Amino acid sequence: MKTITVLPGDGIGPEVTASAVRVLRSIMKHSQQDVQFVEKKIGGAAIDTYGTPLPQETIDQCQSSDAILLGAVGGPKWNAQSMNIRPEQGLLGIRKAMGLFANLRPVEAYQALIDSSPLKRTFVENVDFVIVRELTGGLYFGTPSERRGANNEQVVDTLAYSRTEIQRVVEKAFQLAMKRRKKLTSIDKANVLESSRMWREVVNQLAKHYPEVTVNHQLVDSAAMQLITNPGQFDVLVTENMFGDILSDEASVITGSLGMMPSASLRSDKVGLYEPVHGSAPDIAGQGKANPLATILSAALLLRYSLDMDQEASKIETAVREVLNQGYHTGDLQIDHQDDKIVNTTEITDLVI
Amino acid sequence: MKTITVLPGDGIGPEVTASAVRVLRSIMKHSQQDVQFVEKKIGGAAIDTYGTPLPQETIDQCQSSDAILLGAVGGPKWNAQSMNIRPEQGLLGIRKAMGLFANLRPVEAYQALIDSSPLKRTFVENVDFVIVRELTGGLYFGTPSERRGANNEQVVDTLAYSRTEIQRVVEKAFQLAMKRRKKLTSIDKANVLESSRMWREVVNQLAKHYPEVTVNHQLVDSAAMQLITNPGQFDVLVTENMFGDILSDEASVITGSLGMMPSASLRSDKVGLYEPVHGSAPDIAGQGKANPLATILSAALLLRYSLDMDQEASKIETAVREVLNQGYHTGDLQIDHQDDKIVNTTEITDLVI
Ligand SMILES: CC(C)[C@H](C(=O)O)[C@@H](O)C(=O)O
Ligand SMILES: CC(C)[C@H](C(=O)O)[C@@H](O)C(=O)O
Fold first, then answer.
1. What's the confidence (pLDDT) of residue A83?
2. Mutation site, B246, B252, B255, B257, interface A, largest A CB count within 10 A
3. DSSP string, A270-315
4. Which residues pair with residue A3 across a beta bridge?
5. How far apart are CA B88 and CA B72, in angstroms?
6. How many angstroms separate the CA atoms of A347 and B179, rounded?
7. Catalytic residue among A157, A235, A245, A340
8. How far is Cα of residue A205 from the mean position of the Cα atoms in its chain?
9. Closest Cα to atom 11, ligand 2: which residue?
10. DSSP string, A17-42
11. Euclidean distance between CA atoms B297 and B306, whole angstroms
12. Distance CA A62, CA A50 (A)
């Protein structure tokens, strides 16, 4: 019996996770694998009930699970909160508590959606890469992170890594590259940061163990350009936490399919957390309009990485592609084909199932 | 008599600065203002002669100048250098030595170039904004920046600011917004970084002195998306050093005119350093192919900000636009209009003059 903890979170989180759970239940019927789903609160929903975005109960449940499926956190309701009891702290906290150091974000062109990209078709057509973002180190968790000096008029944050932290995430990226087109782009700012110079050393050292992988280094500013001018060049990208935050959000819009983008946050065993890249979209919450496909595709990654059910994962991915190719999509995708059929959250979930 | 120090640097630097100096000399003939040009070495060229990318002689000369015009630094020849005697150190060093804390990068659609953008025409047509990047603080200069711990297996960089450092650059951005469409977007990562929370406080405090300016805050990851999905929304953006490095390079490709983008690095008096956004393009150096327009437009900014010659600056900008509208451009701009005339560095400079 496998346990999947579901953290619906806020806004459209409950709707999109409900859809993904329906898809998972349906595909599980045809498999040998027994799965139970346990729901817990995180983010704003947890603040409302427990006064904290990440209750101990939620951490405990996650820690005894095989995988976690998360919706989204945050919303205007909690914006007035002090910066330390905000919904996002739940997200950062669970990543850290679970030690999920590698965030994978596949960026892939969907034929049916290419015309909704801000980029011209020729730039997007062959895009198929994965960003591997370090998720539990760097500026996000380094100390000191504080005001100091006379009248607290100075402020510092700390970008801290250990060699081991860099090694384990770069290793993941190499392993992923080996399963794909064997091309790794490591992104850093080695002309300025000491941490980037260590990062580059680690990549070059590990490269010796993966002679089949073509490795190159790009500076983060240059990568921010190349993601737009030549996104087709990339296979696997690996970078530290903050650079990864910025570049993966940039990358998420180039294929015109932000509502479609899944993510997986992994560690060295099979346990992982899976969530859509999009936010909690409080403006459309509860209206049945939300696009559940990113969460459904996250559920596919969950099957692949945490439950060793690669075939079932591919089935879901094929079903999603098929539904789009038939012209069905939710209202958020700005496609403009004749004959397109706009459907709601439940309908598109039914179609995928 | 005003003194302009010219730092040609490496690669195509000497060619593009020569073009810009020719344009400046020609426009000066019709003005009351006497100007002398003094040339000094920086970057790889300085390493070759003095063994350091920023000789004291260059610093001294810059410090007694009214403005500095820089070409570009770097090239494969110096890539093997240790990270501390690299060409880029010259650039970082002169910014710091001169206290040039505000880097301005205008991003503007040129009608003649819109079709060379990777983005669809409708996304780019009305783009007209300026990024104000903090240039002498943050992760670039914070200490400690070092290896530490047993066997040096830990590494830290430090993102440090004082409130005063934040205030002066944000103030510049407000002043600029007042001269433009009165819209300021401040970019930070306030949900994670203490320095960003101070940044946001400073922006909100200064906003009270500029009641006419509409201020909003965007998170850096979200801004990385919005620059692509809706670049037309921006007027003035202001952000810290590293975020500015990444976002301004990202922004530089959306209008399809990277070879056209000037920059100004300013402080509180009128002294400034002006340079094209593009690099030293060693592959085409010395062949007369370089596009000098970004440097010529940087020279226009020099006239505007350092020499109070706004009219002359506008004349240069109009001339550049006119030359492009007539279908002339260098080979780097990927335009594909019938009747376009590809010209070389000297020819396009002649046309502007
Ligand atoms: C909500 C925020 C703290 C988070 C991050 O910066 O990691 C988000 O942007 C993400 O990428 O998952
Ligand atoms: C060369 C490099 C150190 C520099 C920077 O990061 O500031 C460059 O990218 C720039 O933006 O001018």
1. 67
2. B246
3. S-EEEEESS---GGGTTTT----HHHHHHHHHHHHHHS--HHHHHH
4. A36
5. 9
6. 51
7. A245
8. 27
9. B245
10. HHHHHHHHHHHHTTSS--EEEEE---
11. 14
12. 17
In chain B, % of residues over pLDDT 90 = 91
Look up tokens 């905000």; give the residue: A86
Top mutation candidate among A91, A107, A132, A277 for ligand 1, by most atoms within 8 Å of CB: A91
Smallest Cα distance from A350 to chain B, Å: 30
The CATH number that applies at residue B266 is 3.40.718.10
> Is A157's CB within 8 Å of B195's CB?
yes
Residue B236 CA to ligand 2 center (angstroms) comes to 20
Q: Is the pLDDT of residue A339 over 80?
A: no
Give the per-residue pLDDT at B325: 93
Q: Which of B249, B261, B335 is the mutation pick for testing A, counting most A CBs within 10 A?
A: B249
Contact (CB, 8 A) for B100 and B169: no
Do A204 and A290 reside in the same domain of the chain?
Answer: no
DSSP B219-238: EHHHHHHHHHH-GGG-SEEE
Domain carrying residue B305: 1-101+260-353
d(CA B259, CA B263): 12
Q: What is the mean pLDDT of residues B207-225?
A: 97
**Is A191 near ligand 2, meaning CB less than 6 Å away?**
yes
Residue B247: helix, strand or coil by DSSP? Answer: helix
Residues B52 and B67 in one domain: yes
Domain boundary among B196, B225, B253: B253
Residue B350 maps to a domain: yes
Q: pLDDT at position A340, please? A: 82
Does ligand 2 come within 6 angstroms of the Cβ of A192? yes
Is B43 in the same domain as B70? Answer: yes
Each residue's pLDDT tens digit, B64-111: 999 999 999 999 999 877 767 899 999 999 999 999 999 999 999 999
In a domain, B351, yes or no: yes
Report d(CA B287, CA B349) in Å as an integer: 15
| Strand partners for A273 | A68, A265
Q: In this predicted structure, what is the pLDDT of residue B339? A: 73
| Nearest alpha carbon, ligand 2 atom 10 | B245
Cβ-Cβ pairs closer than 8 A, A with B, add up to 158
In which residue are the tokens 């002043």 written? Answer: B175
Q: Spot the catalytic one: A140, A161, A274, A305.
A: A140
Distances from the Cα of B111 to the Cα of B106, B122, B278, B312, angstroms: 15, 12, 20, 22
Give the pLDDT of residue B82. 73
Does any domain span residue A10?
Answer: yes
Closest ligand (CA of B86):
2
